[in-house]
Amino acid sequence: MNAALRIAAWIIAIALVTLPVVAVLNGWIGGARWPMRHLAVTGEFRLVSDAEVRDAVLPAVRDGFFAVHLDQVRAAVQKLPWVRRVDVRKRWPDRLEVLVSEYRPLARWGGTQMLSENGELFPAPAKVMTSLPVFIGPPERRDDLITLYSDAKPLFLGSGLRVTQVALSARGSWNLQLSDGMDIEVGRNDPELRLQRFARLLPRLRGHDPRVLVRADLRYTNGFALTWQDKSAPAGAAATARQGNT
Predict the structure, then answer these.
(1) Does a cis peptide bond (omega within 30 degrees of 0) precede residue 93?
(2) Is the dihedral of CA 51, 57, 61, 66 positive or negative?
């Protein structure tokens, strides 16, 4: 046998050994013999459902145990809204384990992103949670926005109000909006102390005046500038009446 025939023989022998392996790994054969029978999906599901994860995984497991590519499974689940992290493992002979970690949304960030409780920005799902507050500010200052929101949120609960927006300008000036539409200009200096002082007096301010308090400017050393509006005034009308330190 000459050299060319020996090389050809070796190539045929290698092909006969490797082709079945390649066929099994790609799911061309063997799917019925080594099926993936069990799928275990775990995680603290609040926003992602077990059914959504199973639907995403199913196309990747139809061709049997050996044809399941973990990177493909991970990528398919990672595309689901609210999914932060995915861990995938195969267990011989017929088990696939998928562990899902969710984002815990804290606020909406602009029009296309959301902010998690851990300070992570992630793409906003198609159905945005409108009950969450809106944060506006430089991305590198998002920890500061989380801190001020956490401090301000309980201050207004006694007045039956929620903080619906927290904004931090490029120059470091703070602004808040409340659930009744009130706009609060906090300024740059001591925002927590200014908000505490204002929130403490807010029930008395609202109780002593029949009008609607639409704006409070806290950028004063010893008081506030308040803007009121008559309850009968049409929505969007210019704020009227007195402004003064309180």
Answers:
(1) yes
(2) negative
What's the CA dihedral at 11, 14, 15, 19 to 10 degrees? -160
CB neighbourhood size of 240 (10 A): 13
Number of other residues whose CB lies within 10 A of the CB of residue 43: 18
Q: Please give the angle made by the CA atoms of 186, 192 and 195, to the nearest 5 degrees.
A: 55
Q: How confident is the model at residue 12, as a pLDDT?
A: 53
- Spans of the chain below 70 pLDDT: 1-32, 233-246
Q: Are strands 134-136 and 183-187 parallel, antiparallel or unpaired?
A: unpaired
Quote the Cα angle for 223-144-125, to 5°: 120
H or E element at residue 113: strand 113-116
Residue 198, pLDDT score: 97
Q: In the structure encoding, which two tokens stand for residue 72, read together?
A: 């493909």
- Give the amino acid at 102: E
DSSP labels for 79-112?
TSTTEEEEEEEEETTTEEEEEEEE--EEEEETTT
Residue with tokens 């039956």: 160
Which of 91, 97, 88, 94 lies closest to 34 in space, CA to CA? 94
Strand partners, 107: 115
Question: What whole-number distance in Å separates Cα of residue 142 and Cα of residue 165?
Answer: 13
> Residue 137's closest CA among 179, 107, 181?
107
In this structure, are strands 38-42 and 95-102 parallel, antiparallel, or unpaired?
A: parallel
